[in-house]
Structure formats: C-alpha cells, structure tokens
Amino acid sequence: MSILSSLNYLQDLPIAITVIDLNFKIKNQSSAWLKEFPNDFNSSSISFLEYHSIPQQVKVEVLKMTESQQITPIELEVKNHLNSWYRWKLSPSFSSENNFSGIIIIAKNITEERRERELLKKAEQVAQIGAWELDLISNKLFWTDITRIIHEVPEDYTPTLEKGINFYKAGHHRETITAIVSDSIATGDTWDTELIIITANNTEKWVRARGETEIIDGKCVRVYGTFQDIHEQKLKDIAYTRLAERLKIATKTAKIGIWEYNYTNKNLFWSDEMFDLYKIQKADFDGHKSFWDQSLHPEDREFCMQKVKEAFELKKDLEVEFRIILPNGKIRNIKSVAYTEVDIFGDAKKLVGANWDVTELIYTQLQLTKSEESMQQAFENSSVGMALIGLEGNWIDVNSSLCTSVGYSREEMIQKKIIEVTHPHDWTKDSHFIKKMHEGKLTNYTIEKRFFHKDGTIVNALLTVTTVHKVNGKLSHFIAQVIDVTAMIASENKTKSLLEITKHQNESLLNFAHIVSHNLRSHSTNLSMLTNFLKEETDNGEKVNLERMLSDASESLSETVHHLNEVVHITTNTQENLSNVNLFDSIKRVEKNILALLKEKNASCNILVEKDVIIKAVPAYLDSILLNLFTNSVKYSSQERNLEIHIKNKITNNQVTLHFSDNGQGIDLKRHGEKLFGMYKTFHNHKDAKGIGLFITKNQVEAMNGSITVHSTVNKGTTFVLTFEKA
Amino acid sequence: MIEYVENACVIDDDPISVFGLKKTIKETKFCKEIIVYENGYEAINGLKDLLNTNSNIPPIIFLDLNMPIMDGWDFLEDFIKIPEENRKNVRIYIISSSVDPRDLIKAKSYSAVNNFFVKPVTTNDLQKVIDEISQ
Questions:
Q1: Which among B1, B31, B29 has a CA at the least distance from the CA of B91?
Q2: Contacts of B17 in chain A (CB under 8 A)
Q3: How many Cβ contacts (< 8 angstroms) between chains A and B?
Q4: How many DSSP H helices and E strands does chain A contain?
C-alpha cells in the first residue's frame, strides 16, 4: 500500500502533520504532531475535532472543506487557547481513485515568530519609528501606522510616491529627498537623513528618514526604510548646538581652555583656547597626558599629579592652581577646575574641565594684600585714633590709639555701640552727617565731638569720617579718624583762663590807672594848689581857711588810698578765703542788721531764696555786697511808693543766680550803665561816699568768681543779677 | 578895672578845686561874677532856668569831668541839645585832674569844647582864654 507506506513515512516527517478522513478521524500523524498535540485519549480512533488544543477556527475550516470537498488548500494563522500560534495548512487528500478522501493538516508552531513580529510592532509604536516600503515594480508605496501618524494622516490613507515626496518642505528639504531617493534607486546606496516635512495638519516637523534598497539582477526593485519623528530632539539639538556655539565664543573670548582627559587610555583633548593658554602649536600636540605634564612647572608637577589621581580615586571634582612654563620660558599661573565623569558602573573614567590664566589676578591679589597690610600697619600704628565703622553705627575695628583715648580694650570697644561712648549733646550732630552720607550727599565730614572715657570723663576729639564704597558703588563702611584733643583743650582752657585772668588784671590795672589819674591826682592837685596858695597868702584869716582845706584834702587822699587798698586786697586775697556759705542765712542776717533803716522807709522784703543753697564766698564780702544792695535800694527808693524788695535765686549747673529787685527810682542805664560799677570821683569828701559802693561790690563779686549785672527802668525799679559759684 | 567878661560858670563838685579856680579868676580879673554848679545835672538845669528867664548863658564855662549824678560828658551831651542861637557865644573849657590822653581826645571831639586844662588851672591858662576871646 502506497498510502500506508507513505503514511508510515509521514510519521518521521520533522513537521507536525496529520491526515484525517471524511469522518475527521486521525488516519495518521507525525511524531512531531503528537508532540505538539499530545494524544491523551488512549483510543485508537481519535476525532480531529476532539482536540482541545486545536482552535475552533481550524475545526470550522476543516468542516467546511470536507463538506464542500474543496480542493484548494487554505492557510491560516490562529492562536489556540494556550496562546500558541500555529500556521495551519489544510490540503485535501485524494484516494487512489482520485476521490476526496480527507484532509492533510500541517500545523507549524509560529508562536516565536509571531511574538517577534508583535514585539517589533510594539517596538515600532513605542519608539515611534514608522516604516515604509516602495515597490518599484508595482510602484506602490506602503506606510506603517506610525508613519501615518507622523504624517498626521488618517489610518486609511493611501500614500503614493509623489504624495510622499510632497510632504517634505518645499525647497531644500524636498529637493534633498528627491535627489537622495533617485540617487539611491540608481546606485543602490543606503541613506540616512534628517529633513523637515509639513504634515497634513500643516505642522512643521523634523523627521529622520532612512532607506535601503533591494537589488535584483543589478536592478533596484524595492526601497524601504524607517521614518522617525525627531522634532523634539532636533529642536534640542539645535538649541544645544547654538548653546555650544555660544559657549565656544564665550570661552574663546574669556580665554578659557576646555580639556577632557580619559583616565583609561591617558588620552587628552584640548580646545583651541588651551593651545593659546599654553602657547603651543596645535600641530605639536600628541593628545597624551604626558604632554600636559611637561608644561607644568617642575615644582608643581608632583602636586598636580596627586590632585588628578585623587579626583579619579575619590571621584571628586578637581580644583587646582599651578604654574606652567611657556615655550618662551615665561611662567604663568593657571587655574584648573574639572569634574569627574562617572560611568554606569560608578567608575571615574574621564575628567572634563577648564583652564584659565590667573597670573594677573594673583599679581593683583598680591598687590592688594600688600596694600591691605600696609593699611593695617598704618591703621594699627597711627598715633591718630582710627576706626572702621559699620553702616549700623557699630565699630568694625578700632586701633590701639583710639582704645587708649577712651580707655577701653579693643574687645570692649567692639561690643559697644558708638552712641554709647558719645556725649549725648554731640550725637545729633554726628547722626545728622551720617544720615547725609547714607543718602550719598556727603563723602566726609569733620566735627568736634566729645566721647566718654571708660572712667566717665569727657574725651574731646576732632572726628573725621570718610565713606568707603563697594565696587558696585554702594556704601560699604566708614573710616573714622579721631584726634584726641583733650590735652590740647585742657591746655587751651588753661590758656584761656590765664588769658581771662590776665585780661581781668589788665582791666584792673587800667581801672587803677584811671583811678590814679582821676582820683589820686585830683587830691594831689588840690594839695599842691592849696600849698601854693598858703605860701603866698598873707591874710591870716584866709590862711586858717586854707589850712582847713588842706587838712580836708589830705583826709580825702587817705580815704581814697584806703579804698584802693581795699580793692587791691579784694582782688588779690580772695581765692584762698573762699568758704561754703549759706546764702539764705546771709541775706537774713544783713536784713536784720538794717531792719531799723527798712522800717523807717516802711519797706517790705520778700525773700524767696531756697534755704539750703550753699555758695562759695568770703562771708565778709557777701555781707558787704548784700548790705550795699539793701542800702542802695533804701537810698534810691521812690518818694511816691513804699519800698519793696524781692530777692530770689536760681540754680543752674554749678552756678547760683541771685535776683535782687526793688521798686525804687531806677537808673537811666543808657546814660550811666557803663559807669555804674566804676570808681568815681564822687567818693571824695562827700558824706555818703557815693560811687565806691558798687565799685567795691563788683570787685568783690568777681573776686569770688561771680558776676553782677543790672536791669533798671527809671521810676519803676532796679534789679541786680548776681552769680556765685555753687559749693 | 574892667573885666574881660561879665560872668563865668564853673561846674565842679570838688570845693577845693572850685576855691582854687575862683581865686585864680579873681587874680586875673577875668570876670565879675562866677556861677558854681556842683554837678552836670545842677548845671544843665541852672542854665536852662537862665534861658527861661531870658537871661544869657555865661559866655565861659569851666567844666570838670568827674562828677556825681551827671558827669561832664553827660553835661556836654545835654548842652549841645540847647538851641544853637542860645549857646553860640558860649565857650566851654574842660578842667580836669585827668592826664589820661583818651579824655583829651574825647574832649576834642566836641566842637563846643574850646580847650582842655589840666588842674590846677593857672593864670597862664586863663590868659590863653583871655587871648582867645579878645581876638
């Protein structure tokens, strides 16, 4: 039996094949079939339809084929319930009589193949890479889904070669693709290009088109390739290129050299600027690290090697400054900054960095340090007090000279605010100028100012403040120079007081000259005149008269001399006789002494002097002064009204002021003001000795470091204002 | 005996000085009558009284500087306020014991002051006055 033999032969076929009869019984099967579709029925006659692992679709086709006795074989790819894909081939079998006797079924497991295809499709979707194929025989163009999506055309869109080309942007892009495609058809060359298309939605898009050709008998029959949307990436690329270009210009302008060093193969890449920096011809560069090593200053070489090694070993960034020796022998200082590139295994492979020349910078820094040092020296050793003052009015630094002036240590000083060591009266002045400086209206000022020494005493100083600006023009801080003039002022004050004394004494002398010229001379004149008359007088009666006058004149002279002596005594012997005297008690005592006189005038005294005011005075002088004021008030009281005397005091700083007022005749100060306290001829043989009282009073008051002034209105009254030193 | 002027005025608070001056005037027979005021205040009031009774102010005034109440300078200030026609023939001579040159300079600043004599006033001084008024 040929069939049988052929059937037996079938068993050994390396494909899954089975033959069924019209009743779907398995007539024969290959061992490969059994392997694919194991038979677990344990029955000799198995129906094909009973296999669970055979998809229903195949069974349906088998039924159809049997029923219609169809003779054309069919092929179909179906997945079974186990998710295995098979390519089924159903061919009719015929009996020796050429009758339709059954179906030969071949099942090829294409699961792997299918999976690959599906993966490919998925990959296409995921990568957004489309594909296309141009059949040059049928002239048909085929696009995959992704290709359609990229062109933004509907799923059922049918492309043609012409349409496809026209999607490319008119001009350069369309011309390029046309040239490439026709060239490749002619030569069979592959291509890979990036061009712009205008999609169906009129959007510009960068695409990458790759193409390959299929050549049969030297003739291109098919062109196919991939199609990829690279728009985003391309834009990034363009932006990156632009950025890189800019960076390149920047580094070139800034003379920053870029380098890259591959640690594994010791290869070195240098940008053009590096050659400029190292003054080396690009042609002489061998791309090996040793090239760099040779440029280094021998003293810096080892240190640099160490740094580079560290960067790789510790995978840290590199920052190093070193010297290089140029071919012309000159030394330059280079700063290098680099970062370590780490590969996916975490190993440092590459260093990428930059070099630039810092020679000038270092030189400038050196200069700066030098000038800072000398400034510091000047600051510290200046005999003038100096300070750096912050914008908040704090001391940043003070020198020892200033510390000495105010008695604080540097540490104590810096803790203090400026206002704390400034005399409150001078702070407004100071802050006024500081404010102006803040406003930019002033760059320096000099004022006299008082500081407080640590021990509370006042330090007089000449302060000069200057502004210091930052590079950006904003205020940085102030520099203050403080010249301590305390000693100077003290000596000036001493000089002033000496001058005052001298002036005073000069005035006294002048007064004396005046007194001598008027008062003493008038007496001497009288004496000499009378003596002459007496010599020539013959009449005895007249002689007696002249002698009487002569006696009067000599008495007046002696009185004047007595007064002058008193004044001299006052001005010379007062200071050592000053003692603490209660002002109120003194007034009351004097009032009591002349009570009778006051009563006679019906006078009233209103004494509003604080009872505990103690002044520095010579008690006898004070009594004399008060007595003179009282008697003056009585003597020059008004005829029209009863005398009223008001006495009150004020205390200011270290002075006591006494106001002694009456409601008497008053005095025309315009006329007599300047003479009121003068010594006049009036005190000769007048019984009241007018004119000496206020003169003595003034001398006594001034001898006790006080003063006396007068206010008066004619017919209203007079007020004497006296000052005394407070005890 | 004919005196050079009818009367003269002495303004001085020092009686000895006045005594001396009077004596000297008598010796020179300078004038018949001497009016004495003890200070400037008395003098200016006295002179004004004379004018009020239509009498003439004495043509010669000897004026001391240092006096109580109103001194010679103050008198001068008030005197120059008297209308010009009432005092145009009046000559004022300062008599002072002061040898202070400042007093001399100040005295010369008054046009009404004719001369400055340092006390005591002598017959020579009066002769100068006589010479001046005789011209």
A1: B31
A2: 522, 525-526, 529
A3: 65
A4: 23, 27
* B24/A contact by beta carbon, under 8 A: no
Q: What tens digit of pLDDT does each residue of A203-228 get?
A: 899 999 999 888 888 888 888 988 88
Band (pLDDT 50/70/90 cuts) for residue A311 is: confident
Window from A59-63, A282-286, B16-20, B109-113 with minimum mean pLDDT: A282-286
Segments forming the whole domain that contains residue A607 = 574-726
The DSSP annotation for B61-126 comes to: EEE-S--SSS-HHHHHHHHTTS-HHHHTT-EEEEEES---HHHHHHHHT-TTEEEEEESSPPHHHH
The span from the CA of A373 to the CA of A394, in Å, is 23
- Beta-carbon contacts of residue A83 (< 8 Å; ≥ 6 apart): A111
Chain A residues whose beta carbon lies within 8 Å of the beta carbon of residue B74: 671
Rounded to whole angstroms, how far apart are CA atoms B123 and B26?
Answer: 10
**Winning range, highest mean pLDDT, from A41-45, A63-67, A516-520, B45-49:** B45-49
Please work out, in degrees rounded to the nearest 5, the angle formed at the alpha carbon of residue A265 by the alpha carbons of A259 and A269: 20
Please check whether residues A604 and A706 belong to one and the same domain: yes
pTM over 0.95: no
Question: Kind and range of the H or E element at A353?
Answer: strand A348-357
Classify residue A639: in a domain, yes or no: yes
Distance CA A674, CA A507 (A): 14
Helix (H, G, I), strand (E, B) or coil at A112: helix
Cβ-count burial A122-156 (b if 16+ within 10 Å, e if not): eebeeeebbbbebeeeeeebebbebbbbbbbbeee
Is residue A397 in a domain? yes
Q: Is residue A492 part of a domain?
A: no
Q: Are the beta carbons of A337 and A307 closer than 8 angstroms?
A: no
Q: Give the pLDDT confidence of A122-141 residue by residue, as tens digits.
A: 777 777 788 888 888 888 88
| Full strand arrangement of the beta sheet holding B91-96 | B31-37, B5-11, B60-63, B91-96, B113-118
* Residues paired with A710 in a beta bridge: A720
Tokens of A304: 């640099």
Terminal CA-to-CA distance of chain B, rounded, Å?
20
The mean of the pLDDT values for chain B is: 88
Residues 6+ apart with CB under 8 A from A570: A621, A696, A699, A700, A703
- 8 Å CB contact of A681 and B17: no
Domain that holds residue B104: 5-134
Locus of tokens 């400026």: A418
Alpha-carbon Rg for chain B in angstroms: 14
Which chain A residues are closer than 8 Å to B99 by Cβ?
A: 517, 521
How close, in Å, is residue A635 to chain B by CA atoms?
A: 14
How does residue A683 score in pLDDT terms, banded at 50, 70 and 90?
A: very low
Q: List beta partners, residue A657.
A: A650, A723
Contact A74, A47 (CB under 8 A): no
What is residue A8's predicted lDDT score, i.e. its pLDDT? 64
Could you tell me if B20 lies within 8 Å of chain A, comparing CB atoms?
A: yes
- Look up the CATH number of the domain holding residue A262: 3.30.450.20
Which amino acid, one-letter code, is at A382? S
